[in-house]
Amino acid sequence: MRTLTALSHLSPCLTPSPSTSTPLSHPLPFSSRLSLPSSTIYRIHQGILSSKRRLMAPAHSTAPSSAVISSVGDLFNFILSGPLMPKLGFDCDEVAESIDRWIRCGSQLCRLFRLEEFKLSIPEKARIYHFYVPVFIWCENQLLNHKSSFGEGDEIPPFVIGVSAPQGSGKTTLVFALEYLFRLSGRTAASLSIDDFYLTADEQAKLRSQNPGNALLELRGNAGSHDLQFSIETLTSVRKMTIKGMKMKLPRYNKSAFGGRGDRADPSTWPEIEGPVEVVLFEGWMLGFKPLPNEVVKAVDPQLELVNKNLEAYYDAWDKFIDAWLVIKIKDPSCVYNWRLEAEVAMRNDGKPGMSDEEVLDFVSRYLPAYKAYLPTLYAEGPNGSKPDRLAVIDIDEKRNPI
Fold first, then answer.
1. Which residue of 202, 203, 205, 400 is 20 to 30 Å from 221, comparing CA positions?
2. Phi, psi angles (nearest 5°) of residue 161
3. In a 3-state reduction of DSSP, which class is residue 55?
4. Which is it for the CA torsion 101, 105, 106, 110, positive or negative?
């Protein structure tokens, strides 16, 4: 699992802020705030009872206290107000039936991010219950549907979820949270990034020398800077991790090697996974990009022509292995520059090495042409091979919140 320390600047709202925190509970009685059928309220009460038994010390009475009812009632209403509910197919009755599941996931994420569960600020509460928890439950439901399509005794291949999201949008934190929740639910999960398949430093230097003057291929990032055969071999092997006791190491990339130009990490440092693997989270900034007509990409940037040609081989190397998709949608690619600048400023303020403002501009400028060319098609059509019932497109704002 990738470490939390590397994620500290990706989701600022996950840092507790005592000055802005507000209690989760509400002074009004639970039943007065819910205009729901009695059967729905009954199901929520059952969830409350289950949650209380799990979260609190054993009590002499089995009746939920008014404070707990009020707290869960507020949380239930807050969950239903989330912008992802209709997009992910959740309704009032379904949430009521599984309210304990939602509470359990929220509590686990609060522990992960060291938040006070009953004193969440509004941004923290929204990030947990409007974003991470509904996305996880959608993913877990997709996994359950996948498993149900196999017969008893069948070897079930891991369910691969692709997470396509621009740099700085919070995808690493999202994947970290999802993997954590899958593991706590007793499921063997693994994560991979397209970064893990970058060319080695020597191969990248060769690519640079073969394409003098093309700034988009000078450094790692764009199509052409990945070892696609290595991708195919790795993803094929992961899909075969169906038997107990099987082991394999997952590749990792060291971005700090060679003065920041990067290199594949030493295999001795790669994490090992053991089968059977149930779910794989595969994330990347350009995952799902599709090649376009040459005249389209050349109108954005003439240097994209070769990148576009390289992209033709990426479906067979990446996308065809993916069973379900999460696509994080941004309003404007310029957000990437602002998010990267925020992260580097925070690193410098913490006394860590970080890029200057000019270096950030140069870095992001090598990705912007691809964003401008390929994101509209990705958002309009979805990735190649994606199915509507296995695709979730999540719009986020400049603060990385779902809208």
1. 400
2. -110, 120
3. helix
4. positive
Instruction: Report the candidate in 129, 285, 140, 113 with the shortest Cα–Cα distance to residue 198.
Output: 285
Q: Are 117 and 110 in contact (CB under 8 A)?
A: yes
Would you say the C-alpha torsion 45, 51, 54, 59 has a positive or negative sign?
negative
Non-local (6+) Cβ contacts of 216 within 8 A are 222, 301, 303, 304, 306, 307, 366, 369, 370
**How many Cα atoms are found within 13 Å in the side-chain-facing hemisphere of 109?**
32
Residue by residue, DSSP assigns 85-112 as TTTTT--HHHHHHTHHHHHHHHHHHHHH
H/E stretch holding 334 reads: helix 334-349
Q: CB–CB of 263/201 below 8 Å? A: yes
In tens digits, what is the pLDDT along the chain, a chain of 403 residues? 454 433 443 344 454 333 333 333 232 233 333 444 555 555 555 554 454 444 444 444 444 455 444 577 888 999 999 999 999 999 999 999 999 999 999 999 999 999 998 889 999 999 999 999 999 999 999 999 999 999 988 999 999 999 999 999 999 999 999 999 999 999 999 999 999 999 999 999 999 999 999 999 999 999 999 999 999 999 999 999 999 999 999 999 998 888 878 999 999 999 999 999 999 999 999 999 999 999 999 999 999 999 999 999 999 999 999 999 999 999 999 899 999 888 788 877 877 776 788 888 888 899 999 999 999 999 999 999 999 999 999 999 999 999 9
Q: Are strands 272-274 and 247-249 parallel, antiparallel or unpaired?
A: antiparallel
Place of tokens 């509400």: 26
Distance CA 216, CA 64 (A): 60
Q: Does the bond joining 388 to the residue before it have cis omega, within 30 degrees of 0? A: no
Q: With CA atoms as reference, report the closest residue to 216 among 328, 329, 365, 83.
A: 365
Q: What is the pTM of this model?
A: 0.84
Q: What is the rounded CA–CA span in Å between residue 160 and residue 139?
A: 10
Q: Give 223-286 as a 3 state SS string.
A: CCCECHHHHHHHHHHHHCCCCCCCEEECCCEECCCHHHCCEECCHHHCCEEECCCCEEEEEECC
Report DSSP letters for 19-51, one per residue. Answer: GG---S--SS-HHHH----HHHHHHHHHHHHHH
**What token pair was written down for 18?**
């005592």
Burial letters for 277-297: b for 16+ Cβ neighbours within 10 Å, e otherwise? bbbbbbbbbbbbbbbbeeeeb
Backbone angles phi, psi at 56, to 5 degrees: -115, 165
